[in-house]
Specification:
The chain has 175 residues and is α+β, with helices and mostly antiparallel strands. It is built from four helices and eight strands. Helix content is 48%, strand content 23%.
Length: 175
């Protein structure tokens, strides 16, 4: 029996696409503890978006509404009037996760660097998940809290090292 290649390719491509999104999500530390079933439920509420080269994802000082996961492409994270590039993010990277908890202004801008496919997970999505699937929502919150705590710890260490360098510089200058 001869296989109908048109139909088999469509379905195979769909399975590969779904698998790749699950693979991308499992790389994000916030979703690390989720089962395959929970990942599938999460996939249904994620927002897909494509961007053109140079298109702004969000601007510094705009209110944050959620996080983004790069499915395919690159993003420049920029800050200040000179738009200094702070980071270049690519496939599997994520950013903006603090906006899941805070509605404070963004501390940097995000701009597409070339064609870009992303997944968005926004604060209302997390709150809905907490209401409809509390166990899944709590797993995400727990991992989010751990990740933010670790970043705060790293920032505290770096801040302390910087203060020590400044103190040594000032002591040398005063000699």
């Amino acid at each position: 029996m001869q296989e109908n290649t048109l139909w088999s390719n469509i379905f195979r491509n769909q399975r590969q696409k779904e698998k790749s999104i699950e693979t991308v999500l499992k790389q994000v530390p916030i979703f690390k503890d989720l089962s395959s079933r929970e990942i599938k439920a999460l996939e249904r509420i994620l927002h897909r978006r494509t961007y053109r080269d140079g298109e702004i994802i969000f601007n510094e000082n705009e209110p944050g509404v959620g996080m983004y996961i790069i499915e395919n492409g690159k993003v420049f994270i920029k800050s200040g009037k000179n738009e200094k590039v702070l980071a270049v993010l690519s496939n599997g990277d994520f950013f903006g996760e603090m906006a899941l908890l805070l509605e404070s202004p963004r501390t940097a801008s995000a701009v597409a660097n070339g064609p870009l496919k992303m997944l968005g997970f926004f604060q209302p999505d997390l709150f809905h998940l907490l209401e409809t699937r509390p166990q899944t929502g709590n797993k995400i919150l727990r991992r989010l809290a751990q990740m933010i705590a670790e970043r705060l710890r790293q920032t505290t260490i770096e801040n302390s090292e910087l203060k020590n360098k400044i103190s040594r510089y000032e002591a040398q200058r005063d000699e």
